[in-house]
Design goal:
The chain is an alpha/beta fold. It has helices at about 30-40, 50-55, 105-115, 150-155, 165-180, 200-215, 220-240, 240-260, 265-280, and strands spanning about 5, 15-20, 45, 60-65, 70-75, 80-85, 90-100, 120-130, 140-145, 155-160, 180-190, 300, 355, 365, 380-385. Helix 3 crosses helix 5. The protein is globular, with a radius of gyration of 21 Å.
């Protein structure tokens, strides 16, 4: 375990997490957290021990040269903090890593330990799955929670999903059992164009997150990347008449399903977002960027226990950690996939199944991995200069 020292006092912190792998179709969710980290210049303060949670035959370390010195990067999960200035300052704790290979309950409890010590008020987990949705329409994003009170107050869906789940579902249930408010935001990625990246789905997740935590997020070039991505897919689809016909079928099914909402709450939400961006809403520092703050240093120490940082002054604690191994038990917290699959034709040449239908909502859940299963990326790794420190890959 990595020890915390000198972590500054945080203001109304929200933890935002995403994990590469099964819950990250098109790398949309992990790219969204990477965007937040890049735009707000997040500073890493901790990383989980890779030996505890990863099978290095599945997520392999990589060797690289730094000035002639060989170094190893290990797959891991990192935590960083960003300080967002403006009229209503708020801090974010970003969790970005790879879905662990083992010990999921311990993994979630360790993250909840960080959340408790940092005074996190809410946990938001981002995910993306494959669905029967056309690339030419807005990306469907659903907000789900296991807490009925939270669903009512924040206009979220109360999950009714039953079936296989990933680390997103397990972490959400662990938060619920520990008494930490938790929300999952799921973007539906067209299954016929599932290869990463998918900037349009990433943009949709960030827009939904912006509405949820009432914080203006600088988008940089993401909007332009999303437009370029859609034009590229348009061109590819136009070159194959069968694919073009299938996309048209999905469009008709989607338009029919969403017609009653076209004049209601969706338009009001988009208009509110437009006004917030035009007037310069909360979360904007000088020049439209979030401000960097915090005098404390961020240190990592592999020895000893975790030092508890100072708490922000608040009337009551935002969250409590969980020491119960059962807090990570699987539960119905996966995103009910988009319902526009009704009446759609079978995708031409597609080997990806949209999954089984959820009985209570008529939505789908992928039966196979919606994202990439090879997730060893150097930007999600800890560095080691001792190449002889070989991991024990036979650990269960």
């Amino acid at each position: 375990m990595i020890e915390l020292e000198g972590v500054p006092e945080l203001i109304d912190p929200v933890m935002v997490a995403a994990f590469e792998g099964w819950n990250d179709a098109g790398d949309a969710a992990s790219t969204a957290v990477a965007h937040l980290d890049r735009e707000w210049k997040g500073e890493v303060f901790a990383a989980l021990d890779a030996e505890d949670y990863y099978d290095f035959q599945v997520n392999r370390p990589t060797v690289w040269l730094d000035g002639g010195v060989r170094k190893i990067t290990w797959p891991t999960t990192r935590l960083s903090v960003v300080r967002v200035g403006g009229e209503k300052p708020r801090d974010l704790v970003l969790v970005r890593g790879i879905e662990p290979s083992m010990r999921w309950r311990s993994f979630c409890n360790e993250l909840l330990g960080f959340a408790h010590e940092l005074g996190v008020e809410m946990v938001v987990i981002l995910g993306a799955l494959l669905g029967d949705t056309p690339h030419t329409r807005p990306v469907p994003v659903s907000g789900v929670t296991s807490d009925p009170d939270l669903a009512r107050t924040m206009d979220l869906e109360e999950t009714r999903y039953e079936g296989p789940t990933g680390i997103v579902g397990i972490l959400q249930e662990a938060c619920t059992h520990a008494g930490v408010p938790a929300v999952s935001l799921w973007a539906a990625v067209p299954h016929y164009v599932s290869q990463p990246p998918n900037p349009k789905a990433t943009l949709a997740l960030l827009n939904r997150l912006e509405d949820l935590i009432d914080l203006r997020i600088p988008l940089g070039e993401l909007a332009e990347d999303a437009r370029a991505w859609q034009l590229g897919v348009d061109q590819l689809a136009s070159e194959d008449s069968e694919v073009a016909e299938y996309v048209q079928t999905l469009e008709e099914a989607r338009d029919t399903a969403e017609l009653p909402e076209a004049s209601g709450e969706a338009i009001a939400r988009e208009f509110e977002r437009y006004l917030r961006r035009r007037d310069g809403g909360p979360g904007q520092g000088p020049g439209g960027l979030a401000t960097e703050g915090g005098d404390g240093s961020y240190l990592r120490d592999t020895a000893g226990g975790r030092t508890k940082p100072p708490k922000p002054s608040r009337s009551e604690s935002g969250a409590e950690g969980s020491e119960d191994e059962d807090s990570g038990a699987p539960g119905p917290s996966e995103h009910p996939a988009s319902a526009e699959s009704t009446g759609a034709k079978e995708s031409p040449g597609s080997s990806e199944s949209p999954g089984s239908t959820e009985p209570s909502t008529g939505s789908t859940e992928p039966s196979s991995s919606p994202g990439s299963t090879e997730s060893s990326r150097s930007h999600e790794s800890t560095d080691s200069s001792d190449a002889s420190d070989s991991p024990d890959s036979s650990e269960d």
